[in-house]
């Protein structure tokens, strides 16, 4: 007998979590940038810019893949959101990596327009925020209210009640996994 899956968090909660995640990523970017600058002996911010961007992309991939395979990031814990596969099981690292790569659909379309046209900062912000709003609202069309990258990756965001998290931790300890 299978248990019913927990409900999908509201769009407002998921977007609040998304914004909080962005704030937390400033620390990750700072540490990654410092590490890259130190190891590459970069003296000017624009030197090795594309290599730094690739490095941060990889660091983000490691960060999200590792934490999503554990169930949630710090922001997701704060907002009581957990990522699972379609059946409600924890993600494998491969599926978490696929989710990370597909999550770039949030940013790639506006970035492909911004790059060749060299848009000013104001237009760039409007284009990026407009696309993010459209992308988020498209989740309303999915039967379980999931984002498109979650549907494509075979993952889903679910409500993670505090009591359920404690029960999972207790079970992991009993199984010798924690």
Proportion of residues in extended strands: 5-15%
Question: Strands across the major sheet, in which order?
Answer: 1-2
Mean pLDDT: 90
Biggest beta-sheet profile:
2 strands, antiparallel
| C-alpha termini separation | 26 Å
Order of helices and strands: HHHEHHHHEH
**Low-confidence parts, pLDDT < 50 over ≥5 residues?**
none
Name the overall outline.
Answer: globular
What can you see in these coordinates?
This protein has 178 residues and is mainly α. It is built from 8 helices and 2 strands. The two termini are 26 Å apart. 17% of the residues are buried. The mean pLDDT is 90.
Main features:
178 residues, mainly alpha, two-stranded antiparallel ribbon, 64% helix
Outline the fold blueprint.
Layout: H1 11-40, H2 49-70, H3 74-78, E1 81-85, H4 93-103, H5 108-117, H6 121-137, H7 148-153, E2 155-159, H8 162-174
Helix pairs in contact: 1-2, 2-4, 5-6
In a nutshell, what does this entry contain?
Helices cover about 65% and strands about 5% of the residues.
């Amino acid at each position: 007998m299978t248990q019913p899956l927990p409900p999908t968090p509201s769009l407002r909660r998921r977007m609040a979590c998304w914004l909080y995640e962005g704030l937390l990523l400033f620390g990750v970017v700072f540490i990654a940038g410092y590490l890259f600058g130190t190891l590459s002996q970069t003296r000017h911010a624009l030197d090795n810019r594309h290599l730094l961007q690739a490095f941060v992309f990889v660091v983000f991939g490691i960060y999200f893949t590792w934490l999503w395979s554990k169930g949630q990031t710090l922001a997701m814990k704060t907002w009581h959101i957990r990522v699972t596969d379609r059946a409600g099981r924890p993600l494998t690292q491969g599926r978490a990596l696929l989710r990370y790569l597909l999550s770039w659909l949030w940013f790639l379309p506006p970035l492909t327009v911004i790059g060749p046209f060299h848009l000013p900062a104001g237009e760039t912000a409007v284009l990026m925020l407009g696309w993010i709003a459209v992308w988020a609202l498209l989740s309303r069309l999915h039967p379980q209210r999931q984002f498109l990258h979650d549907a494509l990756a075979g993952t889903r965001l679910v409500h993670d009640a505090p009591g359920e998290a404690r029960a999972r931790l207790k079970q992991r300890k009993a199984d010798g996994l924690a």
